Amino acid sequence: METINDDPNRILLQAGMAVLLIALALAWTLVFTRAIPIDIVTNVIADYPRLLQAHIDFLLMGALLLGFYGARVPLPKSVRGAMAIGVFTNPAGFLYLALWPELITDAFLAFSIVSFVITTYGFGMACVVILRSTVSRRAESFAAGRAAATSGA
Questions:
Q1: Alpha-carbon gap, residue 82 to 125, rounded angstroms
Q2: Per-residue confidence band for 91, with pLDDT thresholds at 50, 70 and 90
Q3: Which residues contact 11 (CB under 8 A, 6 or more apart)?
Q4: Secondary-structure percent of the chain, ordered helix, strand, coil, rounded to 5
Q5: What is the DSSP string of 9-26?
Q6: Are 89 and 115 in contact (CB under 8 A)?
Q7: 3-state secondary structure of 113
Q8: How far is residue 73 from each of residues 26, 65, 129, measured CA to CA in Å?
Q9: Could you give the CA distance from residue 48 to residue 59 in angstroms, rounded to a whole number?
Q10: Mean pLDDT for the chain overall
Q11: Model pTM?
Q12: For 72, left (φ over 0), alpha (ψ -120 to 50), or beta?
């Protein structure tokens, strides 16, 4: 019986759960910034809309990872790694801007570009691998069906 520890894609599940926990913490931060203001939180959050963007981006990234994990198609290690890194680094840019909107430095811009490239590679290649697996499966099913039809005739 296959356990989750044998699954090469388990990093997607692990990273997905981690970013969803971050999104949950950010949801409470949003509450303590506006709905039930707490001074220590409101004094730290400089840009509420960016905090909301970070929260939504962490949610979306977590959901995407769970979807890719659910596809049950083994992905190459480089793709899994890029996805696991990107789901943290992309939304982290919004979180950074929520805390320090005035500190858009060259280092931040470089970080953002590198993060975007890594994330694009991971998710883009995952799409290609999964799409190719569905085409291969369809072709195999078609060939098996055709072979069965001709051998029975």
A1: 10
A2: very high
A3: 80, 81, 84
A4: 80, 0, 20
A5: THHHHHHHHHHHHHHHHH
A6: yes
A7: helix
A8: 31, 13, 8
A9: 17
A10: 92
A11: 0.85
A12: left
